[in-house]
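**User:** Everyone, produce a chain:

**Assistant:**
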Amino acid sequence: MARSSAFSPALTRLAQRVAWWSGALAVLAYAIEGGEYGTTDLLSQRARQAALARQVAELTQDVDSLRRELQMVTSDPARLERMAREEWGMVRGEKELLYRMRSASSLR
């Protein structure tokens, strides 16, 4: 007596196809989103790179501005003297006196 299979051949082929397509979809999903550098990681890295590029551009402008200011201060003695007087309260020689006025809020 021959033993018959519990499943028909068509049902077995259908189960194999479903299993194969499920596996293929799982591999495709892992290739797109899985691993160390998934799609969302790459998109966030691109956004971070753009933000850093903007920050570098701003800092480059700041450096250029500071270089121009340094050039002006080192080449113009009047500007250097004005800065010394205004920012550090320096006076010229012994003939000048520096008076500092306190505001009413600083006396409290």
Q: What stands out?
A: The helical segments are 9-33, 39-75, 77-88. The chain has a mean pLDDT of 84. The chain is about 70% helix and 0% strand. The radius of gyration is 38 Å.
